[in-house]
Predict the structure.
Amino acid sequence: CFSCEGKVLPLSSTRVKALLKHVPLWRKKGQKITRVFKFRNFREAKGFIDKIAVVADRENHHPDIEWFYNIVKLTLWTHAAMGLTENDFILAAKIDEITTKMLRV
C-alpha cells in the first residue's frame, strides 16, 4: 500500500470493476468492498484476524472487522478518499493470500 496524504480521490467505477477481477471473492457495497470468511471454529477465526492485524499494521491500511464466532466479515475502503483506492485492492489481495496459506495448513 502507498501512503494517503492530502486529498485522495476515489477510483472511478471503471477502475473498480477492473480491480475487482483480481480479487473475485470480494463484493462492492456502495463505496466499499467486503468479503465474508467462514472458519471451523472461534479459534481459527481469531487466528485469521491476528494475521490480518499484522499485515494491516505493516501496510498502515486497516479494514473494518466484524467477528461472529467462526465468521469474519471484512470491509475495506479509504477514509481519506471517502471511497475505494488501489490500497483497498492491494490489502484485499494480501488478505486473500493469508486465507490461501491458512487453507493449505
In short: Residues 86-104 form the longest helix (19 residues). Residues 1 and 61 are 7 Å apart (CA to CA). Helices lie at 13-20, 42-59, 86-104.
